[in-house]
Amino acid sequence: MSALLIKEAALVLFAEKGYDGTSLAEIADEVGLKKQSLYSHFKSKDDIFIQLLTETFVIEYEREKEFLQTHFADPLFDYLWKSLRNYTERYQTDSRLKFWLRLSFFPPYHLHDQVMQSLYAHIQQVDALYLQRFEQAVANKEMKEENAQTATIAFSALIDSICVELVYGGKEKAETKLQAVWTVYWNGIT
Amino acid sequence: MSALLIKEAALVLFAEKGYDGTSLAEIADEVGLKKQSLYSHFKSKDDIFIQLLTETFVIEYEREKEFLQTHFADPLFDYLWKSLRNYTERYQTDSRLKFWLRLSFFPPYHLHDQVMQSLYAHIQQVDALYLQRFEQAVANKEMKEENAQTATIAFSALIDSICVELVYGGKEKAETKLQAVWTVYWNGIT
DNA sequence: GTCTATACGTTGATAGAC
DNA sequence: GTCTATCAACGTATAGAC
Is the overall model pTM greater than 0.85, yes or no? Predict the structure, then answer.
């Protein structure tokens, strides 16, 4: 059994049931092992979790960076819209997104500070990517001659609200909300 | 020891550490009892939780309703702005808000369906309150002759994003975000 | 109502045979 | 690397003395 498969199983369970709600026995069971055998691959439950969290931030950042590079030349409208749709599309199938939403919001109590520190760094990096595109948009006069910072912050808030809806409302409700929010947002920045 | 005080202690702990992260021993300890004594007041841990959740939805709805009645005649701008500031003001001191955010997003796994059912009903009720005011605003020409429904949904999304920021960013970051989001939102609906 | 005592499963984790 | 055996600590919950 590879450590990778164990982590994948853990990712799904953590995303679905939270850290405290997931036991090592469940994780082991999912990959057909006894819980004791997990200790050949990880030195503790925290170890599994921290590894997953770290990897997740790397993966998510790379995804955003690649997205920016691929779509930088697209019109602002398309760029932002595609970026948003990305979330609703992925949420259903991608446990990693669920994992990071859930465990960033509400990390295990004893790891709170550590998680938050990583989270802030990640958000800052991602916001910086979007800011680049918004500054370009201001220069191109694709949007109101307003603070690109404001548009960035509001856009990241928009993503947050969609994620919230995905978490408790599911995809259909999120799509409805996305449409309303997007209308107002685009109106607001142009 | 009154059941009320026990529930208050449980509320704070659930809000801070989640359902699985909070033990009956901690709750009891907080009010100076042994964990076994809690069973004189509640028949299970779930019982405490469900009571808190039910009460919370009632209290929050009453709060919103009263707010609407008190400020219905205010200009739309003031009405919405005050409503938003309410969240950032309360979040620091009011554990009930934290409780409902956390436990609605991520309820204990075995109570997921039950919690979600109550949550949807609550959200629907609150959205209906806001919709009333937005329809009035359209009639008053306080905003663009657009769908009041869209403005309502977008506003509730706005609240969500502020709550997210309150959860993981704290009050200061939430204030910054609020300002940016509000600028774009108001621009977007007028 | 609160306590002590207790039951009993589950938790994360370690030791050692194979 | 995986297993069995084992552990101490903690989880929720019950019974019964006071």
Answer: yes
